[in-house]
Write a structure and sequence with these properties.
The chain has 138 residues and is of the alpha+beta class. A 4-stranded mixed beta sheet has the order 2-1-3-4. 14% of the residues are buried.
């Protein structure tokens, strides 16, 4: 029994003692880069009062729709190709309470966001579709 136990104990001690706890240089650099990107992203979003409305990627937009209950925008392929996140609110009063800094005056209203803030705000669906067609982010 001692013949088997001692080599196992010595082997475990060698394995534990030889492990390198220092992260590799590549890992250190990528961690620093990730922290810098996160801080830059949070600084950009901190300037906009509603960061949850902003687009998550540079290749797409985010859309806030107020009061257009007759035309479900989520089913329009021209819009969904370029817009990843769509938030629809049924009433103007609800939108004004939730987002007072957006200064929404009438419904229907379509407000398009990129990663920095509002890029389009209007009341006509055709104008929104034209804007998306002209300003392709993909």
């Amino acid at each position: 029994m001692k013949r088997i136990a001692w080599p196992i104990v010595i082997g475990m001690i060698l394995l534990v003692g030889c492990q390198n706890t220092e992260p590799k240089e590549e890992t250190k650099q990528s961690t620093v880069q990730n922290q810098m990107e996160e801080s830059t992203k949070s600084e950009t979003n901190a300037a906009f009062p509603y960061p949850n409305l902003l687009s998550e990627s540079e290749q797409s937009f985010s859309l806030l729709v107020i009061g257009d209950n007759e035309n479900p925008i989520e089913k329009n392929n021209k819009i969904t190709e370029k817009v990843n996140n769509i938030l629809s609110l049924p009433e103007l009063e609800m939108a004004q309470q939730a987002y007072p800094d957006l200064n929404i005056k009438s419904e229907p209203a379509y407000i398009l966001f990129d990663q920095a803030g509002v890029v389009y705000q209007g009341g006509k669906f055709k104008e929104l579709a034209t804007y998306l067609e002209k300003n392709k982010s993909n």
